[in-house]
Amino acid sequence: MSVVLPILRALRDDGPVSRAELGDRLGLTRPRLTSEVGRLVKAGFIAEAGMAASRGGRRSTLVELHPRLRFAAVDLGADSIDVEVVNGRMETIAAYREAADIRKGPKAILHRVSELLAKARVEGAHDRLDGVGIGVPGPVSFRDGVPVSPPIMPGWDRYPVRELLAREHGCPVVVDNDVNIMAVGERHGGVARSVDDFLFVKIGTGIGCGIHLSGDVYRGVDGCAGDIGHIQVDANGPVCSCGNTGCLEAVFSGAALARDALAAARSGASPALAERLGRSRVLTAKDVADGAAEGDVVCIRLIREGGRRLGGVLAALVSFANPSMIVIGGGLAQLGHVLLAEIRSVVYRRSLPLATGNLPVVLSELSGRAGVTGAAVLASDAAFEQVP
C-alpha cells in the first residue's frame, strides 16, 4: 500500500516535521520512511527545512512540502468567481474575486478564470501550477469531471471542464460541485476541522448539502449525493428551476427570499421592505436580514419560515445519517441567529434524542472562503495522487 498520500497530506496539514516524528505518526519503519521521503525529495514534492529540536539523541532533519508547490483554487458561484493561488501549506499567495454571471456559459467563464490565473503568474504568484481544483454551482460527475444537467448553468451540460483546464495548465484537475468543496474546506480549516462525520449545508442561490462521512466526502454513485435543494417540501408550492414543483430551494433560497420580500413590499405588508424597495428598486436577502435586525415582523417571519422548511429536511437527514455536526454556510448564512435558532428548534424537536443529544448546529467559520479552501485541498490531493 502506498504511503505517499498520507506523507504529503501530513506535511500539508501539520507543517514541517522531523523524519522521526513523521514516522511515528504514520506508523512507518525508519527504512521505509527514509526510502519514501528520499523519493519524494527527488520528485520535487518534499524539501529539507533545517534541524529539529533534540529528542535526547542525534538531531533529526525537518522535512516540509517543497516551497515551490502551487495550487489553484476556483469557486464558481451563480454570480461570482473566486480564484486563489496557494502554496503547499494552503497559504494564500494571490486572491481574486469578481462578479460574473454563470449563465454566460463555460467558454466565457473559464476564459476569465484562465485570465485571472495568468494575472497571478505575471504578478509572481506562480511559475507553474501543480494542481487545479474547481467547484461549480450544479451537479457534477466527479468521475468524469463534467457538470451534468445543472439547472442554473445553461450551456454547461457535459462540458469538459477538467479536460480543458488540464490541457491548458498541464497539471491534474479536479471538478466538484460547490457545496462539496465547501465541506472539504470547512473540514480542513473551519469549525469542522476535528470532525469526521458532519453535514455542510450551503444556502445561497440554491441549497445543497455536503455529506462528510468517515473523514471524506460522500458523493454517491454518480456524484449527485446531497442535492437536498430539490427535495419536495410543498406539493402546491412554486415551480423550481429544475422543472418540478415545491422543491426546498423554490420556497427558500436567495432567489425565493427576494421574490417573497418583493411581494411583501409591494403589498405594503412590510414597511421596512417597502422603504428599501423605494430606495433601490430591488430587494435581496440582505434587505430581509437588515429588516429582521430592525424588528420588522414580516422579515422575521420570512426567515423563520425558511428555517422551518430547511430544518424539516435536515431533521430527516439527521435521523438517516446520524452526523456529529451540522454546519450552515453560503450567502444566506448572513440571516444569522434568527435562521439558526429556527433550524435548531425544528431539528431538535423532530429528530430522536439519541441523534441530537450532542449535535451542534453552527454557522461556518470560513464564511466566503470555504469554497476556495476546499478547492485548494482537492487540487493538492489530485497532485499528490499523481506521484508515482
Please identify, by name, the CATH architecture of the largest domain: 2-Layer Sandwich
State mean pLDDT (0 to 100 scale). Answer: 93
- Strand-residue proportion: 15-25%
Number of strands: 15
The 3D shape can be described as globular
GO molecular function: DNA-binding transcription factor activity
InterPro entries: ArsR-like_HTH, ATPase_NBD, HTH_MarR-typ, ROK, ROK_cs, WH-like_DNA-bd_sf, WH_DNA-bd_sf
Family: Belongs to the ROK (NagC/XylR) family.
Domain HTH marR-type: 6-48
Can you describe what's shown?
InterPro entries: ArsR-like_HTH, ATPase_NBD, HTH_MarR-typ, ROK, ROK_cs, WH-like_DNA-bd_sf, WH_DNA-bd_sf. GO terms for molecular function: DNA-binding transcription factor activity. Residues 6-48 form the HTH marR-type domain. Belongs to the ROK (NagC/XylR) family. By secondary structure, this protein is an alpha/beta fold. The chain has 3 domains: 4-65, Arc Repressor Mutant, subunit A (Orthogonal Bundle); 71-186 and 369-384, 2-Layer Sandwich (Nucleotidyltransferase, domain 5); 193-364, Nucleotidyltransferase, domain 5. The chain is built from 14 helices and 15 strands. The strands form 4 sheets. Strands 6-5-4-7-10 form a 5-stranded mixed β-sheet. Helix 11 packs across helix 12. The longest helix has 25 residues, at 297-321. The chain is globular.
